[in-house]
Specification:
By secondary structure, the protein is an alpha+beta fold. Helices cover about 25% and strands about 40% of the residues. The chain has a single domain, classed as Nucleoside Triphosphate Pyrophosphohydrolase (Alpha-Beta Complex). Strand 2 and strand 3 form a beta hairpin. The protein starts with a strand and ends with a helix. It comes from Carnobacterium inhibens. Keywords: Hydrolase, Nucleotide-binding. Pfam families: NUDIX.
Amino acid sequence: MKQEKSCGAVIVTKETEEPKFLLIKHHNGGHWAFPKGHVEGNETEEETALREIMEETHLTVELDTQFRHVVRYSPYESTVKDVIYFMAYTSEQEIHKQDEEVLDSSWSNFEEALALVTYENDRTILQAAKDYLTKKNS
């Protein structure tokens, strides 16, 4: 069984009354989800997430590793993939997308993001992120 690992983050605005979540439309598959990508070399999960965010969006973020969720699925036969998601905060909202990887992007409130995201696994991560933010800010 082949193992793959990607890392990324649920990016949320800080310093706004209602948080906005960043979703990107991935070139590979055309699905709406969070910035993420494969671990390269000896990168840590955190380094991978930060690199992928920078490559795909050019955003500078503050990574919150207290939020760490894993999605496991099989993208193809005899392959298991783990995607590690952290929370990330940014004051920036201007996206400079990586055209080879990203078709579009959207800053959305929770309800809009929940409606836009393509896969149920990602809806679960989005809900967990919202719950985490609510608990953290209470």
